[in-house]
Each structure stands twice: as structure tokens, then as C-alpha cells.
Amino acid sequence: MGRWKNSKNLPNKAENRPEDYSLQREAGQSPLIPPGGRKSNLYSVHLAGNRLTTVPRRALQDLPVLRHLHLQQNGIRAISEDDFTGLLTLTQLDLSENLIGEVDTSAFTPLSSLEVLNLSLNPLSQLRHRPDQGLPWLRRLYLQNTAITDVTAEMLKGFSNLTDLELGSCRIQSVAADAFSPTPGLAYLGLRNNSITNIAAGTFAPLSKLETLHLDNNGLVGLDSGAFSQGSSRLRELYLQNNVLAAVPDLGQPASSRLQTLRLSKNVITELSSASLSSLTDLVTLDIADNKLSSISQGAFDQLTNLKGLYLQNNELTTITGGSFEQLTSLEAVNVSGNPWRCDCNIRGLRDDIKTKVICASPANLRGRSLDQVTPEDLGCDQSPDATSPTGPRSTTCRATFTMILLVGAMLTHVMFLDLFCI
């Protein structure tokens, strides 16, 4: 016989509040209805990991305070509007890891308090809406690991008040330029682990409240410079790692102005120009590890005064201009390992500007040695006071030239004086 449990191991007392109870049916056991009069007090029902092929309507009757319903890891193939009749207080519904192939959102219309819906890990290929119907009260929708191939405005038109949308690890190949026009309140959008190669101009423009965007691991080739347009003024975190981007994308204003985390590792970026990062003034974490970066222009980091973490490991950097990190006054962590550094006098600034381990790859006599253990003489640096200054060699040349001019002038004056007096 089925065994019903209080999930918080609370004593069986009549004074217990409704939210104290959780109902759980162990796998393969029955019945679905708990004994006694405690059913009306149930706050959370757990029916995960059973062999259910349909929603157990009988078990879900007369649950006036039910808030959470867990039906994941079953064999449910379809849902209908009658499955959830009477669950007016339900706020969270988990139907993940079932066999649901299609969903008509009218099935959820009785759930007028529903805020969180999890349909992930189903062979779901589409969401259908009846005219003038949808789930305008829903806040969070999880559709990861489904069979959805395209994101369109038609699919999302019934979810006007969503704040979180997870579409990671689906089969998505395209995102329509107007896809998110029905969901202007999104703060979190997950599109990772798909096959999206391009994002068109204006795609994220309606998302003025967007804070976190995942586009990592997609094979993304381009992110149109107008993808954010005038939207996304609250964007804080942007994940673009493991794509095939050849340059740091131009996010434009205002999307770039408040960005704090930018992940670009495992792309094919080759250089950072002085303009690549200039608009990212609030950036705290910058990750460009595992690219093909071979050149960093002087001044590339000058506007990043709030940067705390900089990750440039496993690139193709051989040298970097002295003073490149001088403006990074907030820097706490930096990683430049795994680059083929050429240890000569040009790299001395790297050791002086940041305290991190740098291993020399060349010349041959310094290969494998840590830069902090190499002397200036080993680097071939002139140790005169003038040579150690950024303007030293130029100043020395100027002084030498000026001295020679004075000497020549003095000699000419002396000759003229002798000629004047016929001496």
C-alpha cells in the first residue's frame, strides 16, 4: 500500500499550518489519495518518479491550498484543460522529464495563480495558443532540452509577463527578429547549447529589462551591431563563450553601458583594438581566454577602471605594450598563462604592471623560465636611468644633439672672433 509522508518530518498535529505539509508517493506504490482528512491541508504534492501516463485528476481534487505540484520523471504524454480544474492556488507546476510532444496552453488556463511552469526534458516541438488565450500571469517558463527548433513571436505571444525564459539545449536554429516582442519584461533569457549562428538587428530591442543573456555554445558567427538597438539598458551579464566570433561584438548603447560580466572564451578573436572595449565602462569581469588573440593595442583597457577579473590565458600573445594595464586600478585577478611570451625588454612592463605568473616561450635561453625570475640584463634592457624611463632614450638623444649644437656654435663664434680682429 502507498505510504504518504510529511516531507519536513513534522509531527502530526491538527494545528499544523497548510504549508507545513508535502505529499509524496513512492515509486510504483498506491493509492494516490492520502488517508484521513489531511488532504485539504496539502501545500505541496510530489508525484515524481512514478509510472504515471496521465495526470492523476482524482488525486488532485479538493486541494484548496495546493501551491506546488511535482509530476516530473513520469510517462505523461498529453495534458488537457480538465487535468488541473480547481487548482486555483497552484503557483508552481513541474512536468519535466515526461513524454509530452505538444502543448496547448489552454490546458493551463484553470491555473490562474500559476507563476512557474517547467516543461523541460520533453520531446516538445511547439506551443500552441488559442485566439486571445495564453498565460499572461506566468513569470518563469522552462523549456530546455526540448525539440523546439525556432523561436518566434507566435510561440511566445501568450506569455506577456514572463521574467525568465529558459530555452537552452534545444534544437533551435533561428530566432526571429521579432521573437521577443510579446515578452518585454524578460530579465533572464537562456539560449545556450543550440545551433544559432546569427542574431539579427533589433532582436533584443524590446527587452528593456533584460539583465542576463546566455548565447554560449551555439556556433554563433555574428551578433548584429543593432541586435540590442535602444533596448537592454539593464544588461549585466552576457555569455558568448564557445562560439566562432572573430571580434568583440559591438553592443551599442545603452546595452554596453552597464554590462558587468562579458564571457568570450573559446571564440576566434585575434585582436583587441583601442575601440573594442571602450564603451564597457562598468565591466567587472572580462574573459577572452582560449581565443587566437595575438595583438592588444595600447589603450585597449584604458576605460575599464572597474575591472576586477581579466582572463587572457591560452591565446597567441607574444608581447604587450608597457603601461597597458595602468588604468586597471581595481584589478584583483588576472591570468595570462598559456601564451607564447617573448621575453625581451618590450615585455618588462607586463611584470611591472600586474603581479601574475608569466612563463617565457622565447628566446631559447629563457624558454620555460618565469618572468619574475629573469633580470633586466637577461631581457636585454639598458640599465641606465634614462633607459629605464619610458622617455629615457629619446631624452638622451635630445641632450646629445643639443650639446653638439652648442659646441659647434661655440667653435663658429670663436672663428668669427679671430677673423674679425685678424688674429
UniProtKB/TrEMBL annotation:
Pfam families for this protein: LRR_8, LRRCT
SMART domains hit by this protein: LRR_SD22 (SM00365), LRR_TYP (SM00369), LRRCT (SM00082)
Start and end residues of each stretch annotated as Disordered: 1-38, 375-395
Feature: compositional bias, Polar residues: 385-395
Domain LRRCT, residue spans: 339-382
Keywords in alphabetical order: Leucine-rich repeat, Membrane, Repeat, Signal, Transmembrane, Transmembrane helix
SUPFAM superfamilies given in the database record: L domain-like
Protein name as it appears in the record: Carboxypeptidase N subunit 2-like
Transmembrane segment boundaries: 400-422
Keyword Ribosomal protein: no
Species whose genome carries this gene: Branchiostoma floridae (Florida lancelet)
Biased composition (Basic and acidic residues): 14-23
Coiled-coil region list: none
InterPro entries, A to Z: Cys-rich_flank_reg_C, Dev_Immune_Receptor, Leu-rich_rpt, Leu-rich_rpt_typical-subtyp, LRR_dom_sf
